[in-house]
Structure formats: C-alpha cells, structure tokens
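2024-03-11 09:14:02 INFO worker-7 job=invfold-0412 stage=load source=structure_tokens
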C-alpha cells in the first residue's frame, strides 16, 4: 500500500503490485540477514583484540605473562622498548613495571603478534593508565619508532622524559636496546675491535 498527497491536499492510496511488495520483503530480509552475519565476526574480532587478565609474571620491563582463559599469554608491550636486563636501568624498568601490574588484573588491547609468538599489546592498569605510556614517562623505556612510527603521543611523552632527564635519560649517552641487542649478536672479535660489521 502506498499513500500520496496530491497538490490539492487530498490523500490518495494506491496499491503496489504484489511482485514489488515481494521484492521489497526479500530485500529487507537479505539486508537484516547480512547485518547479523557480518556483525557477529566483527564482534568476535573486537572481543579477541581486547581482553582482561591477571599479570602472573613480569619477564622484563616490556614483556608480561598474563592469564587469559586459563593459560598464560606472553604480551610484549606495543610501541616501546625497555633497556635489556644487563643495560643501565634494565632492572629498574622491570621493577617499575612489577610495582604497577604484578598480581593485578589489566586490560590488553592487541596490536598483532611478533615472530616469537608473543602478543603485541597496550596494557591498561586498573586505574585506566597505559603501562606502555607510564614506562616511557618515567624514563624506563624508549619510544620504539620502528614499530609505532605514527604514535605522536609516545613521541611527546619520550620528549618530555628526555627534557627532564628522567631514568635512562640521566645517562649522557644511553644506548637504545635495539642497538645493544645488535652488539650482543656480533662475533666476540668484532666487539673487541670496536668495528661494526655491515
């Protein structure tokens, strides 16, 4: 049934042909079905990408063990890189992270995975602060520009920590952890000579 109002203000009613009514119903059913079918995977994907769990291990400043559905998930913090264990501030970074998250329930927003099978994620404390940001803010982590090149917030937080000479920035020549790891992989003879192999 279709209602129209003519220019003189009178209402008139016209019937649509049955074939058009049938087509409209079919299109409506298909539209509603597609909404349900496509919404379910999106909802499941969002649930997967954001989850909560209890921190049961702080392996180093930027790697945590978090319980999810009865198993431990190793989470590497997104966009940051803490000093290695034997670098200056490496142990302090781990201690700082432990004090904030160990034995607490945190929220993880996933950013994919890495070649070691770890989940890459941003970890949020019970008070909604980002652990990733807190580590950089305190001077216990670098902004890992290689993996988060467009993260202007991390760039600004690091700039402020550098300016205030906090944590690792109190060292006149801090060595980025990715450079430290590269040096550790060099043959011993090359390390002693001070030459870097290309």
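2024-03-11 09:14:09 INFO worker-7 stage=emit residues=198
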């Amino acid at each position: 049934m279709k209602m129209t109002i003519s220019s003189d203000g009178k209402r008139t009613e016209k019937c649509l042909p049955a074939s058009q009514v049938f087509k409209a119903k079919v299109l409506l059913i298909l539209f509603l079905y597609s909404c349900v079918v496509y919404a379910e995977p999106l909802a499941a994907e969002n649930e997967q990408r954001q989850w909560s769990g209890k921190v049961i291990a702080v392996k180093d400043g930027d790697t945590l063990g978090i319980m999810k559905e009865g198993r431990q998930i190793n989470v590497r913090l997104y966009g940051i890189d803490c000093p290695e264990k034997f670098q200056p501030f490496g142990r302090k970074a781990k201690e700082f992270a432990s004090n904030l998250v160990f034995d607490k329930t945190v929220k993880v927003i996933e950013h994919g995975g890495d070649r070691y099978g770890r989940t890459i994620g941003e970890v949020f404390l019970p008070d909604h602060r980002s652990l990733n940001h807190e580590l950089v803010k305190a001077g216990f982590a670098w902004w890992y520009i290689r993996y988060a090149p467009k993260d202007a917030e991390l760039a600004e937080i690091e700039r402020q920590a550098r300016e205030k000479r906090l944590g690792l920035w109190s060292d006149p020549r801090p060595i980025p952890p990715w450079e430290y790891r590269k040096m550790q992989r060099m043959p011993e003879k090359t390390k002693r000579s001070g030459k870097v192999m290309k």
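2024-03-11 09:14:09 INFO worker-7 stage=report msg="DSSP finds six helices and nine strands in the chain."
2024-03-11 09:14:10 INFO worker-7 job finished
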